[in-house]
Amino acid sequence: MARRPLFDEIKSFQEFSKYYWYREELQKICREHGIDASRMKTELNHNIEEYFKGNIIQPEKSRESTRHSKNSPKSTDSAPMTPQTSLLECNFCFNQRFRDFFSKETGIKNFKFNVDMVATARKVKETKDSSFTLGDLLDIYYGKKTYAKYNKVSLQWNKFVQDFCADPANAHIPNKLKAAAKLWKIVRESTREKIYTHDLLNELNIL
Questions:
Q1: Residue 62: CB partners within 8 Å, gap ≥ 6?
Q2: At what angle are helices 115-127 and 41-52 packed, to 10 degrees?
């Protein structure tokens, strides 16, 4: 089975997405390429996707330095925001400024963006939907509306282990988690679908 290539050997986000990456691996990639590495896994994947498009999402401190150096009173980054503000108009991104906004709107002190908000913001930018507002994104958070659903890749490992343990053929295995991890390591570093099937045991013959 072909090995998973090094990040710098990968030519597109589509190719990158064929493989499974742990959060720590994504953070390391981001740090090595000057990309913001401070967010959750969904946002790190988004940042890397932007990297392949030629858009470097810099770490927070770098963005702040760039913003202050411009010293422009007309910058949209300093403009007041309301629920009626367009995501495109305010240059929405997953940083502390917008966390503070949603924290104030929701009353949640340590606000965290959920995965569907990440998927929605990405689609809004891709489609250049200027009508979509911060209030609309708040409705996404509360589940009042749906715009784009996130493909929960980060849950693949959990599902893989669950299915491995549920397979009656594996009932005799004393340490199922260790065995599943050994099988998963091969699968995640390949381009095959990241799911468990009983046929994998026979095909890979590792247990």
A1: 34
A2: 20
